[in-house]
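Side project, low priority. Logging it here so it doesn't get lost.
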Amino acid sequence: MAAVQRILFLNQRRRLRRRRNPRGQLVRPNAVRRLNLDLLDLPDDVLCDRYRLPREEIMVLLGLVQEELTRRTKRNYALSPTIQLLTTLRFYATGGFLQTLGDAYGLSKAAVCKCVHAVTKALLRHAPTYITFPRTRDALQGTKIGFHAIGSIPGIVGVVDGTLIPIHTPSLLSPIYTCRKGYSALNIQVICNHQGLFTDIVAKWPGSTHDSFIWANSGVCQMASRGAFAGGHVLGDSGYPLRSFIHTPVLNPQTEAEERYNMAHRRTCSVVERALGILKMRFRCLHKSSGGLRCSPERSCAIIVVCAMLHNIAVLDSVGPGSSRPAAGPLARPRVLEAGRRSARSAAGPRGRPRVRSLAALLQIVPKSAADQQR
């Protein structure tokens, strides 16, 4: 009789727990839903639109992080590496609330947060493979030729610029994260090549830090001061100091040559400005319209670096920002450079085109073509 009463008591307590925690009843249905959901069977255009990467690159990323994301046990319906990766990519692409993202995959808010943190940490280890500054002589020469085709300025190995990424106001030292625009942010420095690829990124300084301070304490600046650019230099805006290895525009141009130089400087620096705009359009979690990154500054820095790495992968695969379909054909890969040429020509106008061409003739800096150099 005592055993029967004990069983009845346990059943009653179980029913009360279910009433108090109705979410516990959704664990098994959500797990079955995830097991029967194969998101990689979606069409290519849908994958590019939702996750900003084609199927082949998603599979490559899955191979990089699969071993680290695989759970040691299958108890409690452990999440598969595929679900964790796709959930994180969807967060990067939309920047939406974690609860809303979790409802689409049958996950709780805490589970989505853990997925984003684990996948970001796993991908961050592979960032140096995709974000590399040219160091060999051939790589530097190719970058110089590419930039010369845009603005007719020789010897450019990269263009540097800074951007503000909004974040949630931290509880500690919140004033130093307030940027000049009045909201909490991180000041990120990037260096871009002629193809729109990020070759260097510094993501660790609060929003109140000046661009020149970030540049002076960066590894590329230390490299350039030792003469590692093989006679090359970097272009930057007026916020950076003028040095032999970084050239800035003339503040008060007095001669026609100085005006032509400023025009060529603007055309060349527009590459990094477009690259930053494409980065924020492709991964909306970095854009101000999404409300900023609602996590700690340390995790925000890791997310920014991983998004820059994924941006390079998308550019190499000729995937446009927010495009529902990857570009195809032999002319798809250098379209960032071609778009830069078209925008620079339209911005210069009919009088600006011969001016930039005459700048190269005036300074006698027109190098030989690649075919002549091979001969």
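Brief comment: Residues 369 and 375 are 10 Å apart (CA to CA).
Revisit when time allows.
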